[in-house]
Amino acid sequence: MPILENIRKLARANLSQWLNESETPETEIEAKIRELEDGAVQAKNTLAHFVVSYKRMEQNIQDLQATAEDQSTRAEKALRSGDEASARRALHAKIKAANRADNLMPVLESRRETYHELQESLVEIHAQLNLARAKMMDVRASEICCESPLEAPDDVQTTPSGPTVRHQQIEAELKSLQQKITGSTSEE
Question: How many other C-beta atoms lie within 10 A of the C-beta of residue 160?
Fold first, then answer.
């Protein structure tokens, strides 16, 4: 299935190395994030469809096993009542259902492994998506730091009526610390 291969390739891609080694512009990281988001959506959809198919096959096997047990019971009842022909038909149906169930078991096991691989791929895609988003935030933060002039934080700005309450608290704490330091150095 080409969809499964694409999901596996996307999950195996070493995007962390690409993101860390290159000084990529914001647009390239955004494109990679979009690609990862699309891959995550595709992986989720594929996983959902796969689960439905897997559950159907699992139910089919359970039904075949139940049919085999039921036919075995019928054969036993038929033999007790002396109807050998009905017992043979029931045993034939039992063997047929049991064989079909046995033939489907390896397919079910293979699908179980594929299901787990898809789950792991989805987890890996989400991890790489989070890494790419973190890198994007770093890039944006560095751009903001480089572009904006150094200003005092908002809570230290003065208002037309004077310093803000927070600024006053900072100043009071600073004076208290200075007094402690001055007091401790004079005691030594």
Answer: 4
pTM to 2 decimal places: 0.55
With contact defined as beta carbons under 8 Å apart, do 61 and 108 qualify? yes
Residue 53 pLDDT greater than 70, yes or no = yes
pLDDT interval class at 183 (50, 70, 90) = low
Is the sign of the CA dihedral 21, 27, 28, 31 positive or negative? positive
Other CB atoms within 10 A of residue 94 CB: 19
| 8 Å CB contact between 31 and 10 | no
Q: How far apart are CA 112 and CA 133, in angstroms?
A: 32
Decide if 7 contacts 118 (C-beta within 8 A).
yes
Q: How far apart are CA 127 and CA 16, in angstroms?
A: 10
* β partners of residue 163: 158
Domain layout of the chain by residue ranges: 2-150, 156-188
Backbone φ and ψ of 13, nearest 5°: -60, 135
CA distance 84 to 92: 12
Tokens of 99: 């064989």
Q: How far apart are CA 149 and CA 132, in angstroms?
A: 27
Count the Cβ atoms, other than its own, within 10 Å of residue 39: 22
Among candidate residues 134, 129, 126, the one with its CA nearest the CA of residue 33: 129
